[in-house]
Design brief:
Blueprint (H helix, E strand, L loop, with lengths): L21 E3 L5 E3 H6 L13 E2 L32 H11 L8
Antiparallel strand pairs: 1-2, 1-3
Length: about 100
């Protein structure tokens, strides 16, 4: 189950569980769409993979007895921040952004 991290790890903007602007990599590094498009150029600064829109967890448990939805599995509250400097991110991104995520 996804952690649903509450913020962009680069600009620290809020990304609540219902946000359509949240993007995640395969390791669940979480960034806003603006940072992914303008700074990261679809390159995760941690793993080098690409990003996908983060799914939105339903607020309601729509199936009786299944204990699903935000009420049963709330979003994460721990804010994460990238450990990489802007210079390091730029070098990393520039080195591999020309490769499609499937070829990285």
């Amino acid at each position: 189950m996804l952690e649903l991290r509450p913020n962009c790890e680069l600009c620290d903007c809020d990304l609540p569980p219902h946000s359509a602007d949240a993007r995640i990599c395969t390791y669940e590094c979480t960034y806003c769409a603006r940072c992914v498009e303008t700074v990261l150029h679809n390159v995760c600064p941690t793993c080098g993979g690409g990003f996908a829109p983060r799914p939105i967890r339903p607020r309601t448990a729509w199936r009786k007895g299944r204990h699903l939805g935000l009420a049963h599995h709330p979003a994460g509250a721990t804010r994460h921040h990238t450990p990489f400097t802007p210079e390091d991110i730029k070098q990393h991104v520039d080195r591999i952004k020309h490769l499609a995520p499937k070829d990285r």
